[in-house]
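Supplementary Text 2. Reproducibility record for the structural model of the 260-residue chain.

All settings were left at their defaults, and a single model was retained for analysis rather than an ensemble. We include the record here because the model underlies the residue-level annotations in Supplementary Table 4.
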Amino acid sequence: MPHAQASDGSALFYDVLGSGAPLLLLAGQSNHHRWWDSVRDRFAARFTTVVMDWRGTGESDAPDTDTYSTRNFARDAVAVLDAAGVERAHVYGTSMGGRVAQWLAADHPGRVDRLVLGCTSPGAPHGVERGPAVRKALADPDPDLARAALLDLMYTPAYTATRPGPFHTLGDPAMPPHARRRHLRASARHDAWDALPRIAAPTLVVHGTDDDFNPAANAPLLAERIPGARLSLIPGGRHAYFEEFADTATPLVTTFLEGS
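Retained model, structure tokens:
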């Protein structure tokens, strides 16, 4: 299996599939590359897709060190692009992956062609945080109840009622506890507000209107902060809008990435 080497020597798993212009797909917090399983083939029909396992997840190393931050995850993504032989790519980041994508575009502008930020936030100091009821539900000491709460935040009941799963957006179950804690801290400490105006890549901001996990009010904040950014809202979409509403979201993103 191919691995890139991060600046600290950590091995980072990545995978390449498809043909066409390169497209780096970045998953959410505490999730690995399978986050994209339900829609990756659609993108791979038009693009050379590159996915990766964040440090601490999947087949990547999980050092118990102070190397977990959204900005350092962006450096890890650059290492993956280097290993894959990709000089410049479109980037589509969702949830924490969208936070990482903000740093990737701001700090490494030569590596990003077009940018899509999905169901994400500029960070707590300026962004809109999830409400206390959501936090309480996710922290339920009963793991089954916490998982049910997360599932409800990701998808509508109508969607999950007809699908037994597995759902690859609920976190990497094999992730070591120290890495899970460090992922949570990295996402919570994200603050790219001052860097957003430096993003030069054409940018599309996408969000489900019914996202309570990462409130949809963050989408216009990002779109207004990034020069020339476009904003598209997916009616009825929750946090995993890109999966449940793929018939709407995937063509929307594809059209944008292809320059329309």
